[in-house]
Amino acid sequence: MGAPFPSSRHADRPFGRVAPLARRERSSQWLAAPTARPASPPPRVRFPLPPQTTPFPIDWNRPLSAEFCFAFLDCEFGGLDVEIHDLTEVGIILTDARLNEYAEAQWRVKARPERISPHAAEIFGYDEALWAQAPGVRQVLTEIVEMLPKDRKVIPAGQNVRMDVIFLERAFKKCEIPYPFDYHVIDLATLFYSWSLVAGEPARAISLRQAATTAGLLGEGGVAHRALEDARLTLECFRHYIGRLSPREPAELPTD
């Protein structure tokens, strides 16, 4: 199980807000003679900014939401075309809104060999004899539904997670099983690119490989292209970049 995240040391944040400009009042001269303008219009008034040391209180121990949780998921496919390629592997890690883990599972999915491209087979290590022993897609989808909590929305999260969602949506529809996930998604690519803008670091790509390499989380073997391992790497990248974007106390800020 993962440790609570982010840590409580990020309890306060220097935070300021720019107040709106005061409305310019019309002079009596404007009201009396609309065509005559005063020699010098009233100056704009700007409200002072709050002090930058004003704390923004954040209680990291308070639950963010009991309305939803996240399913960090990754799928492997026989190719990138949902019309001609099969789902071959699914990995899911369930977390609460603070990314604390409470369940994980992975499945190989029996796939038709003719619906797996040679390139995809090489990437994820397809073995026809091994996959022939895997459960069928209907059984896998049924077990996924049983795994998910029923008292809250389950939001898919991952790297380029829309691709995983496309294959899962099609599989659930084909099997006539109601789709169990929420229609919202959160994606590592967006988080990583947001961090790159804030940090002033150029993003050479928005792939899992690039995000994990930049975070120092990728070993010599590179991205595993196995469902559960990639889902975990994605979750660790989420934790890393949320930590880099989370509020920090003044003593923790760079001095240069």
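Next protein, fold it too.
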Amino acid sequence: MKQIKYFTLEPNSVLDVALKMGWVLLKLVLVAFVASTIENPAMFVYAGF
């Protein structure tokens, strides 16, 4: 029901949902990056973590 509600609200709400989805994607990319750097410690240190 929530997904349907988002589309019936004003465009600002749709933008808010898009930003939230973008933030989730950003976190997934960050997690994937960290997971790949764990296998390569030199890159991990170079990234500044």
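About the second fold: The chain has a mean pLDDT of 72.
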